[in-house]
Amino acid sequence: MSLLKLLGWADASPEPERLTATVQARLVDLTPARAEFVAAFAGLLVRVAYVDRSISEAERAVLAPLLAANAGLPAAEAETVIEIATHQATTLEGISYASLTRAFNAIATDEEKERLIDCLFAVATAEGTVSVVEDDEVRAVARALLLSHQQFIAVRSRYKDQLEVIQAARQSRDG
């Protein structure tokens, strides 16, 4: 319990994360639990895309299709959610990635968590390589989702040829 809650200066039950509330307001057919799942999935996709403080056109091109395919949304709704998440991530509003990660961890199965990690690597490879900073960010999300190292490596191994660190090692070895 936080000191603010203990002193009665904070709400005992915090409001839903801003991204979740915005998604639920725009996609009124989603239940609160579904909106939380969709918002967390989208927010974490954007987290990896924006880790270098910009989102490339190649990354933008894969975000909505990944969300639509993995969160069961129609393409237009996935585009809307990605627009909301991107706007919040790239403006002063910001996104509370910690609260999104906690929410996703609480509601997602291990299979859904691994699928999210796979999607995060797909976003990271949109420009052809997974940079060290993107790899570290995906690893941080996997840890926060309480996935084992083996689970993380199993997903990461599918992208080994795109890892910047592997490509650099090959180039130095080959001269």
Features:
single chain, 175 residues, mainly alpha, globular
Task: Describe the model.
This protein has 175 residues and is mainly α. The protein has a single domain (17-174), classed as TerB-like. It is built from ten helices and no strands. α2 (18-26) runs antiparallel to α5 (75-90). Mean pLDDT is 89; it is low at 11-15.
From the coordinates shown, what is the CATH architecture?
Answer: Orthogonal Bundle
Provide the β-strand percentage band. under 5%
Average pLDDT, to the nearest integer? 89
- Low-confidence sequence ranges: 11-15
Structural class per helix/strand content? mainly alpha
Distance between the termini: 56 Å
What fraction, in percent, of the residue positions are helical?
Answer: 55-70%
- Characterize the main sheet: none
- CATH domain fold name: TerB-like
